Amino acid sequence: MEHTKYLIAGSSHAALEAINAIRMHDAEGPITVVTRDSYLPYSPTVLPYVVSGKSAPARIFLRDDDFFARNKVSYRPESGLKALHADRNSVELADGSSVVYEKLLLATGASPAIPPIPGIDTVSYHVLRTLDDALKLRGAIAESKQAVVLGAGLVGMHAAENLVKAGASVTIVEMSDQLTSGYFDKVAADMIEQAFRDAGAKIMTGSRVVRLEPSAAGAKLTLENGTTLEADLLLVATGVKPNMGYLNGSGVEHAQGILVDDRMQTTAANVWAAGDCAQARGFFTGTKVMNAILPDATIQGRVAGMAMAGDPGLKDYAGGVPLNTYHFFGRHAISVGSSTVPEGGEMVTRFDEKTGRYLKAIFAPDGCLTGIFGVNEFFDGGVMAQLILRRIDLTPLRERFVANPLAVGREIMSQTWR
């Protein structure tokens, strides 16, 4: 049975940031990384670009073998967690081996959430969460003439655009009343929808699939209103769910995700969690939320790594702030923070119909920014998130800020960022 000081389960952003944080304080303690993936580390966010051909699969890896050698890390692919025995500081892996650890980080990410549609197990469909998924989808897109995408989140919309550009007839089916409902408001969503319609895609919002069955084309979909659709390529992009099956019987408390405190500690001794599998405190509500975005995964991974190594410079996690960017048909959209106007707060919007530039900024009663959203509007999402987290009063600069959030945001941070 293998023994290690630091065991990290998972290999994407949270895991890699934890390695960096551990090595900043502990240069020698043995680190073992186990992952269900077959490859070197990569980001799920790059997969749409693998599908489109913009990113070559061989060039997407975040770290190479030399990185693990230099940092004295044992990297074990195809070794996902099978079971966690927190009471005795050990795990069972999918390859049949076991590892005893002193400190464990669960950074196991998420998997596609497959909706319980009757007949879904009788048809072939694609998902997009791993590199293998992306390679299979890229091959299928080249052959598709009639595609249906279930779900209008960012994964589904990226894939739909690739299908449109490949010449397929594309229908997007979404249960919500608008596209990208988890990211953008109705104005922004309508702009995104119009871009897709102009490119030839069909959009069916407020629609629910009630049955799937095999057909000559590949799959037949029946909607709640009786409409039927045929697809030679079906992509299911209806969200993700954290990978937590290995927790059964572990005693680690979990809800939507693995529950953690502000140092990413779980309810079990010597066990931390970070990234898409962790449910941590939200910045706006104080309640524990899922915030499965890349920037938060790196922050959580850093906090967890510092906590595991006992780094005295550790600061508590400030809370999750949503941040999403989306590029579509040569345009871009970005959302940072909360879309809810706080009591006594104010929402400021501007829209230039000629240029298609749209901006919405939300301010708390004390003048602090709580959310900013734009289409074809240029600002730095990371800077905006810091303005929110640092609760900087923008009242004296509000007019200038709304007119040019990119320049004014950077100006503020150059003066206050320490």
Automatic annotation (TrEMBL):
Domain of life: Bacteria
Keywords: FAD, Flavoprotein
NCBIfam families given in the database record: PhenlGlyoxDHPadH
InterPro entries, alphabetized: FAD-bd_OxRdtase (IPR050260), FAD/NAD-bd_sf (IPR036188), FAD/NAD-binding_dom (IPR023753), PadH (IPR054806)
Cofactor: FAD
Keyword Magnesium: no
UniProt entry tagged with the keyword Transcription: no
Species of the source: Aromatoleum toluvorans
Protein name, UniProt field: NAD(P)/FAD-dependent oxidoreductase
Family: Belongs to the FAD-dependent oxidoreductase family.
Domain FAD/NAD(P)-binding, chain residue ranges per copy: 5-281
Pfam families: Pyr_redox_2
